[in-house]
Design a protein that fits this description.
The chain has 15 helices and 21 strands. By secondary structure, the protein is α/β, with parallel strands linked by helices.
Length: about 475
């Protein structure tokens, strides 16, 4: 899901800045009424489809299957649903520890909000941008900073229209094979920016990549640019809107339509196919049986599940390499004062935190802001550590409290926002999007369009449901209507 790190828009809307901030982690906070625990008495362990993973991809797949008359059991490892989105509160304010924004350019998730009549939100103020300057930082007006950012970023994406003429079909372009071998660092080097200019944009490429611009594929960011309309204005405005009531409100609406049984605290250990039956074993010893299974966990988790018979080699290779970036943290801070006011910051590659964004202003004039970090030394939970870092961006700022989610250390994510590595798109990506026997795979990591965003999770869930229905048309029995 990504909300990945990228430059923020010149508009004063806080949510217009969310793409700049980026990590598109997909998940929500709800622990739902009626959701069962593993092994609960008087619950069926058989359905038409077992769905492994209760994020947006898994819940959407279950809803689509129910529309076709198939029942589902959702097995979720955590004690909540939502995966890499997580609605919660901090300093008395609602926040999202994972992905949070939606946009009309993201047709799958936007349609879901419209379907359920869930309002979108936008708002907030912006006083300044904090940008690299020499060995430190300078405070600029949003307009001045955005104008220069547009001038610097636009050449970075020259040719992306040919690579992705239909960006929802990532294999439709010409010259893709060669460009997919490039890292974001390779592309920066090709353009040979002056050091002062590169410092304005390499924090974005490094943040999205997972700490170093050498890790992420150039085509990952180029596809996002194409999906955004191929302009800087479209690119930075992609996450203008949030969801009224948080991502959990939208997830719960989809879940209600799925009529799926939910088993929380049910990590999956093994998936075994024998004949026309798939058996799913949890780490608690619970056994679930169905003719078909949707595996809707992050790609990085595939390697933690034993599949019998084994999956094609591409699945294991990509899971070991990882699509969700390691060491990824989203950090919220309650702050007071500071020379930059309500600011967006884009520190350069190598700085311990990346894009920093204003979230809200409280009644007493204090503010909530958030940032991202892929630095293993940054915990996000130390007020003193964050004070030292933020003081470099906005002198005089006071950090009152912090909270953070370390998605890389989360054993049920093993990574944060999605970022393919060089060669993945034109190598194994098409294979890992396909079903294997009676297993379909879903998740924003493997979406064709907005990979890493909530939209990609919804898209992928729909695709997996269609793949399951194609299996069903081959004559498999329906166990539970």
């Amino acid at each position: 899901m990504h909300d990945h790190p990228n430059p923020a828009a010149p508009a004063t809307s806080r949510r217009t800045l969310l793409k700049a901030a980026g990590a598109a982690f997909l998940g929500a906070s709800a622990t739902l009424a009626g959701a069962g625990r593993a092994g609960a008495a008087a619950t069926r362990n058989t359905a038409d489809v077992i769905v492994i993973g209760g994020g947006f991809a898994g819940v959407t797949a279950a809803r689509e299957l129910k529309k076709a008359g198939l029942s589902s059991i959702i097995l979720e490892a955590r004690g909540r649903l939502g995966g890499r989105t997580w609605s919660t509160t901090f300093a008395g304010e609602p926040i999202e520890l994972g992905g949070e924004a939606i946009d009309p350019k993201q047709p799958n998730v936007w349609a879901e909000a419209q379907r359920y009549g869930i309002a979108t939100t936008s708002g907030g103020g912006l006083d300044s941008f904090v940008m690299p300057s020499g060995s430190g930082f300078t405070i600029l007006s949003p307009g001045a900073a955005s104008t220069r950012l547009a001038q610097l970023f636009t050449p970075f994406f020259d040719g992306s229209a040919a690579l992705f003429p239909n960006p929802f079909d990532p294999f439709s372009g010409t010259g893709l094979q060669a460009f997919d071998q490039l890292s974001m660092r390779d592309r920066l080097n090709q353009l040979a920016y002056a050091p002062a200019d590169e410092a304005w944009i390499n924090g974005t490429t490094a943040g999205l990549s997972g700490g170093t611009s050498a890790r992420g594929a150039y085509t990952m960011l180029a596809q996002s640019w194409a999906l955004s309309g191929g302009t800087y204005e479209g690119y930075v405005s992609i996450n203008t809107y949030g969801v009224q009531g948080g991502t959990a409100a939208l997830l719960n609406a989809i879940l209600a339509d799925s009529q799926a049984q939910v088993r929380l605290n049910s990590p999956v250990a093994a998936v075994t196919t024998a004949g026309k039956t798939v058996t799913v074993l949890t780490t608690t010893g619970a056994v679930y049986v169905a003719p078909r299974v949707v595996v809707a966990v992050p790609v990085n988790l595939w390697k933690t599940i034993k599949f019998l018979p084994g999956l094609p080699a591409e699945f294991g290779a990509v899971s070991r390499a990882g699509i969700g970036v390691p060491n990824s943290k989203k950090i919220f801070m309650h702050v007071r004062g500071g020379a930059a006011g309500a600011f967006v910051a884009h520190p350069p590659e190598g700085f311990p935190i990346s894009t920093t964004v204003p979230h809200s202003t409280l009644a007493d004039g204090t503010r909530i802001i958030f940032c991202f970090s892929t630095d293993p030394q940054v915990t996000g939970t130390s007020v003193a550590q964050m004070q030292g870092l933020l003081s470099q961006l906005s002198p005089g700022i006071q950090v009152l409290a912090t909270t953070a989610q370390n998605w890389g250390a989360d054993r049920y994510s093993l990574g944060g926002w999605s970022c393919r590595q060089p060669g993945m798109l034109t190598g194994p990506y098409r294979t890992i999007q396909q079903p294997v026997g009676r297993l379909a795979f879903a998740g924003s990591d493997i979406a064709s369009g907005w990979s890493g965003y909530i939209d990609g999770a919804v898209e992928s869930g729909k695709t997996a449901a269609r793949q399951v229905l194609a299996m069903s048309s081959a004559g498999d029995p329906v166990l539970v209507g």
